[in-house]
Amino acid sequence: MSDPPHIPIRFTTQKAFASRLTLATLTGRPIRISQIRPSSPTNPGLAPHEISLLRLLEAVTNGSTITISYTGTVLEYRPGLITGSAPGSGASGGVIQHEVAAGCARGVSYFLIPLCLLAPFSKSPMNVTFTGPGVVTSATPAGDISADSVRTAILPLYSKFGISNSIELRILRRSNLGPRGKGGAGEVQLVFGHQIRLPKTLHLLNPGRIKRIRGVAYCTGIPASNNARVIEAARGILNPMTADTYVFSDVSSAPYLPNKEKTNTNGKAKNGIGFGLSLVAESSTGCLYSADVVSPPAGGVPPEDLGQQCAHQLLETVAAGGTVSLVAAPTMLTLMAMSSEDVGRLQVGKDVISTEQIIGLGRDMKAFGLRGWGFREAATGQENDIVVSIVGRGDGNVGRKIS
Questions:
Q1: pLDDT in tens, 190-213
Q2: Which of 305, 304, 179 is nearest to 254 (CA)?
Q3: Is the pTM of this model over 0.70?
Q4: What is the distance between the alpha carbons of residues 252 and 172, in angstroms, rounded to a whole number?
Q5: Strand, coil or helix: what is 184?
């Protein structure tokens, strides 16, 4: 039997921090997270990117209460109503300006993916601009995907739940994790104007065949010839798979940030230098598979090696099977759990469903009072896939009821 709604659900450690906060906000259940890096001798408690995420949730909700212990190792979060960019709820002129402080080692997708999950259930449209010296638009070594992959491989999947209007992700200024891991100063704007009562029930059981591949090769503060070398190496592997392959090249200058070093007479220095590649494969049934590779902060990786690595990563993602990749599976499973009270079905590769991330997500959903998952073998000829069945919660958008 689950605890009463006013009693916080207890978790330990910072694992799945963003996912648990998102589920708490969607279900309206308070949570208490303890033992957050208690043994770290230099930086115990919440990290800068986790503090920034809490500030973002406070800005897009009304009535949320956040309590942090003196050491930062214990957090209690009581969610409020998801209001989006409604006037008087932290928005100025209908836009929420969220500044990410320097020292954030996570990409902007760490904030975008939870925000996109909350946006359909908001009382009003969501319009958030991410600025500041800590905004990194590329993929990161911590496992965050690039903003390009969110735009091309995550947001289009919302249309399968009947959420497709007035959704846009704009990368206004690019930035990578530069040397010594010090990057940032990018700028990204998310506009999510499609709010619904309940997502549609999903039935996605046919992966189809790959019909096209699209991608973006980006570089910041380095010669454009790097992009050409990355694209040529990737196409050399992908062209035999499908002839409809196109990779767009985006070259931008590195942003400048204040630099207080004595050797710098100008007082400013280039920041966020690097390059990367984002690829997305689309099947004949609308399934999307993505891959992301970025140059390491220390450098030393030739563009040709990076292009080949990203192409091989995309092929491995497609070979994993199912109708959804690992980076998009949490979004799809969460929306299925929040949909109408009907059984939704999603075919997932065994290599995807068996990961620690997806198993932990299922356990967390059960802790929040959502329905359990059902499993059965996929159709004949697809022995590496499993069909996941989820009964929706059926509560819908509370903000839409009030308005």
A1: 999 999 989 999 999 999 999 999
A2: 179
A3: yes
A4: 10
A5: coil
